[in-house]
Design brief:
The complex is a heterodimer of chains A (about 325) and B (about 500).
Chain A lengths: L1 H26 L5 H6 L5 H10 L6 H13 L13 H36 L4 H15 L2 H15 L12 E3 L2 E3 L4 H34 L2 H8 L4 H30 L2 H6 L5 H10 L3 H29 L7
Antiparallel strand pairs in A: 1-2
Chain B lengths: L1 H17 L6 E5 L14 H10 L4 E2 L8 E2 L2 E8 L2 E6 L13 H10 L9 H4 L2 E8 L2 E6 L18 H4 L4 H4 L9 E7 L3 E6 L12 E6 L3 H9 L5 E3 L6 H5 L4 E16 L10 H10 L2 H8 L4 E3 L22 H10 L7 E7 L6 H14 L3 E7 L1 H9 L5 E6 L6 H8 L20 H10 L5 H17 L3 E14 L21
Classes of the chains: A mainly alpha (about 325), B alpha+beta (about 500).
């Protein structure tokens, strides 16, 4: 077990190195930050002054080595734009993204599993068919379209939900939360539903497939024959056995929701990390971009390792040697 | 257990009341602030926020933007390189420190350091700063800079005592100025909140608390307006203008923007553009009226020149070369290109309103007169990089000068590229005309304003006659005010949201 963990961690470090290297190679093609930094009134000499003051006159490989050197000391460099520590900038935005992703995963888990059970219990009903058709939309409609449609209906026509921002927030220590105010909850509904759309459909279909398989098992027939209530048979005997893969997928997708909520955050002007990444790309703010991508890689790697480890707990037959 | 649950529920119910009350005025704008350091960026998007927390020595109040006193009560140009400013007395910074000449000297010296400031251009033009007493400042320039005072509404004065030795992170996020509003909170990506300064030297402003909320996405700005979540929207999306006009609760204000969109064109030796007949042919081939009608949906004003009306150097009556494809073909044939030549239309696709579509239209017009056109539009971060490497001979670009003086524009855009003299930094086509160069240099030492205006107008005229560029149109700035709250908003030509001007 321990050797396995160490191996995975070492692999992770190699992946992170590769990711940061790819970022630096990419930067050669994303434009020169100096032009934007120096502004339109700068002369050529003033541009050079700015270039030197940011260390951008050094060759790329030296810039890379000094970046890695900084990272080993926990220093990811300062944003070119705001001169604030890049990691701090991203961490400041993290609560917003985590709250959005958490709400979205709750929605998709509760609705996905709930509706999945409904369609597997009454597979031929009109409701079930409507839900299944809806799930195809959920998978195939791109996020930005879902978001804009929701805004059109609920903010523009019905005027019941706000279309952008986090609403009123409360600061608790370093964590700024919108989940403690009524206004904050109103603001999170639309973006959370938008973000949950795809996962909801996936979890629904996964639950349905598992349920249909399990419901035809012998032990379920036994349970019905024993005269147990439908509630006990379906939820206690059938659903529990279906949930293991569903929970795995939900866990894995949480990482994706955190790291890739960029589109949703842009549409709803959600002040999270994804929004910051997009702004930074437009502004060629290289330190922030590379820090973000490395952080996203860390999140995905960690969740993958955790999921692998939970397997071993859930199923003792699995051994990592 | 039950008791804990009950306490929790009560606490949750009480929390919304603790949260801060909504601002008196909510302004939605299209660009987020990048820094709260007033000298970090020369872009109007950033200066707009700063103008609420800080004052310059001078200011340009809405609507006409006439240079007026602010922290300086009066000013004069003593000779070619010397400027004298008499400062206002009794002004205090938000932290209580008194404003004096030492603050001005400190500000302009700090502006020379590229770590703190990107307003290097104006700071580096200063040779020395003298402060004979607490309320007089005398600047000496390295060489004549006629527009020096014209930029004084952009150079915001910081407090010397508290800025020295202040942590960089703090300095870049918490502004301390003399402005009409005090900084309250900047929640990055969400809003900038400010409160009226009761001791402001012009008197306290009408709205006690103001939120400026940046929304970069057009559709979201539209939704904010449709859902009445903003009092003022700066940057109404043109693509949705017809729908917004139909909203009964919205008042639209549209005015020609300062920024001119033009096609920059080379006259480099060895290229077809060397021949003025070719440059004229290209100008004749472009149907600007159709671009305004079809691409810009009527939201633009055609122009024959790059400077806008309030700029010193604007020449009334300049005419653009008319749309005339037959004439264009004839000129091309005369120049020796009856079968056309290869031309690349370059430009950014995320910088100006409909920039990509305008490039496409221009490409189409040029193809019609027989040129073999390649379209090369790309994100601004890459395009501007290529432009400053002189990779393009014909491209779309936009320009206006914050100084309201055509002199600086001419140095940047028209003068032959000369790294050592700092000329032609934005002249990406390497256009070069020794006659214009001479006129530009001569104009910079003229002190008399009327005489100088004539000299600048002459440069402007000459550049249009020589087809140094093909001006297309001024963009339109569109603002929306939500009715009902009786907000009186006068847009500024620089699009700054100066909250003290909102009544």
């Amino acid at each position: 077990m321990a050797t396995y963990l160490i191996k995975r961690l070492l692999q992770g470090i190699v992946v992170l190195m590769a990711v940061s290297l790819v970022c630096f190679i990419m930067f050669r093609y994303t434009g020169d930050p100096v032009l934007m930094l120096a502004g339109k009134y700068a002369t050529q000499q003033e541009r050079e002054m700015v270039r030197v003051s940011y260390g951008l006159d050094r060759p790329m490989y030296i810039q890379y080595v000094s970046f890695i050197g900084g990272v080993l000391k926990g220093n990811f460099g300062k944003s070119y734009i705001s001169s604030v520590d890049a990691l701090d900038m991203i961490l400041e935005r993290m609560p917003a993204t985590l709250e959005l992703a958490f709400t979205a995963i709750c929605i998709s888990f509760i609705l996905g599993v709930g509706l999945g059970v409904v369609v597997s219990v009454w597979p031929t009903g009109l409701v079930a068919r409507a839900i299944m058709a809806g799930s195809i939309f959920g998978i195939s409609i791109p996020t930005f379209l879902i978001g804009i449609l929701l805004v059109m209906v609920f903010s523009v026509y019905l005027e019941v939900l706000p279309s952008f921002g986090r609403g009123e927030t409360v600061q608790i220590g370093f964590w700024r939360t919108g989940l403690l105010t009524a206004d904050g909850w109103k603001h999170i509904v639309l973006p959370a539903f938008t973000l949950s759309g795809y996962q909801l459909a996936v979890l629904l279909r996964l639950t349905r497939a598992g349920m249909r398989e399990v419901l035809s098992e012998e032990y379920i027939k036994t349970a019905w024959a024993k005269g147990l209530s439908p509630f006990k048979v379906i939820l206690k005997h059938a659903l529990r056995n279906v949930l293991i893969p569903v929970v795995t997928i939900a866990g894995l997708s949480f990482g994706e929701l955190v790291a890739f909520s960029i589109v949703t955050e842009t549409i709803f002007q959600w002040p999270g990390m994804g929004n910051l990444l997009l702004t930074s790309i437009f502004e060629t703010d290289q330190p922030v971009i590379v820090t973000y991508i490395m952080l996203a890689a860390v999140i995905i790697l960690t969740i993958n390792i955790l999921v692998d480890l939970t397997y071993a707990f859930l199923n003792p037959k699995i051994r990592y040697e | 257990m039950k008791r804990i649950a009950l306490t929790l529920i009560i606490a949750l119910l009480a929390l919304p009341a603790i949260a801060m009350a909504k601002a008196d005025l909510v302004v939605v704008t299209d660009a987020p602030p990048k820094s709260m350091n007033p000298h970090a960026f020369s872009s109007d998007a950033n200066l707009s926020y700063m103008s609420n927390f800080f004052d310059g020595l001078l200011q340009r109040p809405a609507p006409d933007g006439k240079l007026s006193p602010a922290l300086a009560e009066s000013w004069e140009r003593l000779d070619g390189v010397t400027w004298k400013f008499n400062l206002r007395k009794g002004v205090k910074f938000h932290n209580g420190n008194a404003f004096t000449a030492a603050d001005v000297k400190f500000t302009f010296e700090r502006m020379k350091d590229p770590q703190y400031s990107k307003l290097l251009n104006i700071a580096n033009s200063i040779a020395s700063i003298e402060t004979p007493d607490d309320f007089t400042v005398i600047f000496k320039n390295v060489k004549p800079v006629p527009w020096f005072a014209e930029t004084m509404h952009q150079n915001f004065i910081v407090d010397m005592e508290s800025s020295k030795g202040r942590d960089d992170g703090d300095y870049n996020t918490k502004p301390v100025g003399t402005g009409a509003y005090k900084f309250v909170e900047w929640v990055k990506g969400s809003y900038v909140r400010m409160a009226a300064n009761p001791d402001y030297w012009e008197g306290a402003s009408k709205y006690k608390s103001v939120d400026i909320r940046p929304i970069t996405e057009e559709a979201t700005r539209f939704a904010a307006l449709a859902g009445k979540q903003a009092d003022i929207v700066n940057g109404v999306p043109i693509s949705l203008i017809e729908r917004i006009e139909k909203m009964p609760h919205v008042e639209l204000i549209s005015r020609p923007a300062r920024r001119a969109i033009y096609m920059d064109i080379s006259n480099m030796k060895g290229t077809p553009f060397e021949d003025i007949r070719v440059r004229k042919a290209i100008a004749h081939a472009i149907n600007e009226d159709e671009i305004i009608e079809k691409v810009m949906r009527g939201q633009a004003t055609a122009t024959a020149q790059v400077p806008d009306v309030p700029t010193v150097g604007y020449l009334p009556g300049l005419k653009r070369l008319p749309y005339d494809p037959a004439m264009s073909k004839k000129l091309l044939a005369e120049a020796g290109y009856p079968n056309g030549f290869d031309i690349t239309v370059a430009g950014p696709n995320d910088r100006y309103v409909n920039d990509e579509k305008i490039c496409e239209a221009v490409a189409k017009y040029l193809a019609k007169v027989g040129l073999k056109v390649t379209l090369d539009v790309k994100p601004k971060s890459i395009f501007f990089d290529e432009m400053s490497d002189f990779k393009h001979q014909f491209y779309l670009i936009g320009w206006f000068d914050g100084s309201f003086d055509f002199g600086r524009s001419a140095e940047k855009l028209l003068h032959t590229v000369d790294k050592d003299k700092g000329m032609g930094a934005y002249n990406g086509t390497k256009y070069s005309n020794p006659e214009i160069d001479k006129m530009i240099i001569e104009s910079s030492s003229i002190i008399d304003r009327a005489e100088r205006e004539k000299a600048l107008q002459a440069i402007n005229k000459k550049s249009v006659e020589d087809v140094a560029w093909i001006p297309l149109h001024y963009q339109q700035d569109i603002f929306a005010v939500v009715k009902g709250k009786n907000v009186k908003f006068t847009p500024r030509s620089d699009r700054w949201i100066v909250a003290k001007e909102i009544k």
